[in-house]
Amino acid sequence: MAVKVYPVSLGCPKNRVDTERALGRPDLRVKVVARPRGADLVFINTCGFIDPAVRESVRTILQLAGEIAALPEAKRPLLAVAGCLVGRYGQAGLAGELPEVDLWLPTAEMEAWPERLREALRAAGRWKEAKPSSRLPERERLISTASYAWLKVSEGCGQSCSFCTIPQIRGRLRSQGADFLEREARQLLGQGVSELILVAQDLTSWGRALPEPAGLQKLVERLMPLPGLARLRLMYLYPAGLTNELLAFLRQAGPPLLPYFDVPLQHADAGILQAMGRPFAGDPFKMVERIRKHFPQAALRTSLITGFPGESEAAFARLCDFVRAARFQNLGVFAYQAEDGTVAAALPGQVPVAVREERRGVIMEMQAGISRELLEPYLGRNVEVLIDAPHPEWPGLFVGRAWFQAPEVDGVTYVSGEGLAVGQLVTAAVNETFDYDLNALV
Q1: Taking a C-beta distance cutoff of 8 angstroms, is the pair 21, 30 a contact?
Q2: Is the peptide bond before 256 cis (omega within 30 degrees of 0)?
Q3: Fewest CB within a 10 Å sphere: which of 170, 282, 426, 430?
Q4: What are the backbone dihedrals phi and psi of residue 363, each rounded to the nearest 5 degrees, phi first?
Q5: What is the spatial distance between Cα 84 and Cα 431, in angstroms, rounded to a whole number?
Q6: Is the domain of 290 the same as that of 331?
Q7: Integer Cα distance of 335 and 51 in angstroms
Q8: CA nearest 121: which of 81, 86, 79, 83?
């Protein structure tokens, strides 16, 4: 009999993959339920990257703990909390503050999560033993998306950015082997997924930490021919690793690899980049030009930080000039957070919080106009759209994505027409454009 689980995964797609891998183990036999009532287990995978994420994680724990406490004692599910919050602050530091939690699962013990969950469920009388089956696959994932899925190719990070807590939480870079990733990719495609999105904290460093070191090219070559793969998207390409050699390889690779480049530059001022500990503290526009030399029609995405310590008016002006000149298809902006334990938190020249947020708003307003201008030429043109989900409020309307739209971080394409279904790749005529989104008809 299956264990009934109410899962919550906070933060980045890498966390979602961790949740799907932990709960998808066939020997755990999980059935997802829509609410805590009736569940055997409430599983929360937390984010602890920056302070707002920490606060969201704690709020979520307290909210669900309250819902559990309101149930009759015999019907209360086990409450397990996993992920980056635990990795950052440790069970000893959290247990006294959150005694409602039954089981803590740190990131450093991720491979043991399924066994730890089984032990806790068994102790609570919630585990149902079943006869072992030789037909169980070695590993599966309980995917929570329909038309696409993320493939997390490595863990941790080998960089030393002064503002980042990831190496403290997740450890140093460890790459997953190509055999495992190909096997998992085949399983995902076999479940109806059409688009695979490679993610890591530093995707371009994949393979360096393997017993037999390899480059990202090898992994892309392994995945591209897989049956059922319509789109292959690369996310978080660390700028220093995006060499001319790698770009030349990606250019000749062709479909299903998308000409979509998610390159987190973080800033454009040389002094700020140096203070951030970025290893390419020169002119980031050269990176943009390098990509467009190989892919003139590429869709570029980046992330930026406003209000980093020492960001003067002149440095911020250079960042604004860079955004205007680069004209990114998609852009994420974060107001700097001074995180305990990071080098940046102790730097002089801390920018007032209100100024950080104001500068973030300036960049986002600028980007809205750029995005609108880049989408306007699609009016009246046909675009290929992957249908992700029915619209939650409008029957007959579906939410999908053109090739230049990554899930959850970019805009979407709303599609209407006869006979549409989730997972379809359809050609649709764009009849309306907005700041970030498109409307289209089939």
Answers
A1: no
A2: yes
A3: 282
A4: -65, -40
A5: 43
A6: yes
A7: 12
A8: 79
pLDDT band per the 50, 70, 90 thresholds, residue 402: very high
Beta strands per DSSP E along 75-188: 78-83, 103-106, 148-152, 154-155, 174-175
The CATH number assigned to the domain holding 118 equals: 3.40.50.12160
What angle is formed at CA 313 by the lines to CA 354 and CA 318, rounded to 5 degrees?
115
Residue 132 lies in a domain: no
CA nearest to 178, candidates 125, 131, 223: 223
Both 232 and 291 in a single domain? yes
Q: Please write the tens of the pLDDT for every residue from 29-62.
A: 889 999 999 999 999 999 988 889 999 999 999 9
Query: Is the domain of 390 the same as that of 347?
Result: no
pLDDT tens figures, 406-420: 999 999 999 999 999
Provide the token pair at 295: 């892919």
CA R_g for the chain: 23
pLDDT in tens, 227-284: 999 999 999 999 888 999 999 999 999 999 999 999 999 999 999 999 999 876 568 8
What's the one-letter identity of residue 424?
Q
Residues 352 and 308 in one domain: yes
Region at 234 (left for phi over 0; alpha for psi -120 to 50; beta for the rest): beta
Q: Do 354 and 392 reside in the same domain of the chain?
A: no
DSSP string, 263-274: ---B-S-HHHHH
Let me know: does 234 contact 199? Beta carbons within 8 Å. Answer: no
Which of 437, 393, 435 has the alpha carbon at shortest distance from 414? Answer: 437
State pTM to two decimals. Answer: 0.93
67 with 86, same domain? yes
Domain that holds residue 170: 148-376
Tokens of 344: 């940046």
Question: Of 154, 190, 153, 188, nearest to 174 (Cα)?
Answer: 154
The per-residue pLDDT for 275 is 95
Q: Structural domain tally of the chain?
A: 3
Give how far Cα 22 sits from Cα of 43, 141, 153, 168, 400, Å. 10, 8, 16, 22, 28
Number of neighbours of residue 411 by Cβ within 10 angstroms: 19
Query: Does 135 reside within a domain?
Result: no
Residues near 74 by Cβ (< 8 Å), separated by ≥ 6? none
Q: Using an 8 Å Cβ cutoff, are 24 and 141 in contact? A: yes
Q: Given 3-state DSSP classes, what are the helix, strand and coil percentages for the chain, each rounded to the nearest 5?
A: 35, 20, 40
